[in-house]
Every structure is written in structure tokens, then in C-alpha cells.
Amino acid sequence: MGVELIHKCPVCDSELIVQRLKCTKCNTVIENEFFFDKFMTMNKEELKFIAIFLKCRGSIKDVEKVLGISYPTVRNKLDKIAKKLEPDAITSNKKDSSDNSTDVLKILKELEDGIIDFSTALKEIK
């Protein structure tokens, strides 16, 4: 029937566009630059995960059971897919989260080195 649609260039890994569509019945041809829907850029594993997530009605616990993977693994897969769908929104949230983690690690290091005491560390983390 045809070849599975690819969305990345096999040579340089850049995004591809579709330039020609053809009707299977009347052979009408439409030429233009057609771009891929975000879901069309998902690989088979990601699409399978999305289908399972939807079948589980968004319950991460149920996805854990179905796939036999841990909660953090489910969250990581969700985050990667969400980033593909809305890269700007997820990136900015991740940056904030990463900054907070770095701050906490810095505070814990200061506590460990005796630069600050426990109550000060607790206040700064909160």
C-alpha cells in the first residue's frame, strides 16, 4: 500500500514537510507545503503510551500496573511527550523546577559544611 510516513530527514535529522497529496480514487493531486500534526511526529512507543494513558483515564497508578514500570518512569514518559506537544510551556516549568533543585542542593551543601544550621536550612528550603 505504501511506506510508513517519516517526519525527520534520514540524512540530517531536520523536520520534513509533505509537498504532494494524491487521491486514491480519482488521482487528483494537490501540491503545497503540508506540515505534520504534533501527534504524527510521535514514535510508535510514544503513541502506545498515550493510548494506554488514555485507556487508564489518566491514572498514573493504573499505567504503572499495565506497563509494569515505576511512577517516576511514567512521569518521565509523560513529561517527554508533553514537551513534544508544548515545548515552550514544559521547558519553562522544567527550568523553574531545576533551579529550585539546585537551590535546595546548595542549601544542603551549606548545612553539611556547617555554614548554616538546620533551622536556617529549613527556612530557606521552605
Describe the structure.
- The chain has 126 residues and is mainly α.
- The chain has a domain at 40-125.
- Helix content is 55%, strand content 9%.
- Helix 2 (60-67) packs across helix 3.
- The chain is elongated, with a radius of gyration of 23 Å.
- Residues 91-95 have low confidence and may be disordered.
**Unreliable residue runs:** 91-95
Order of helices and strands: EEHHHHH
Question: What share of the residues lie within helices?
Answer: 40-55%
Compute the gyration radius: what is it? 23 Å
Q: Strands of the biggest beta sheet: in what spatial order?
A: 1-2
Q: How would the global form be characterised?
A: elongated
Count the DSSP helices.
5
Biggest β-sheet description = 2 strands, antiparallel
Mean pLDDT: 83
Structural class: mainly alpha
* Proportion of residues in β-strands: 5-15%
Oligomeric status of the shown chains?
single chain
Protein name: DUF2089 domain-containing protein
Organism: Oceanirhabdus seepicola
Pfam family, one: DUF2089
Domain DUF2089: 9-39, 42-86
Set down the secondary structure blueprint:
Blueprint: E1 18-22, E2 29-34, H1 44-55, H2 60-67, H3 71-85, H4 87-112, H5 118-125
Antiparallel strand pairs: 1-2
Helix pairs in contact: 2-3, 3-4, 4-5
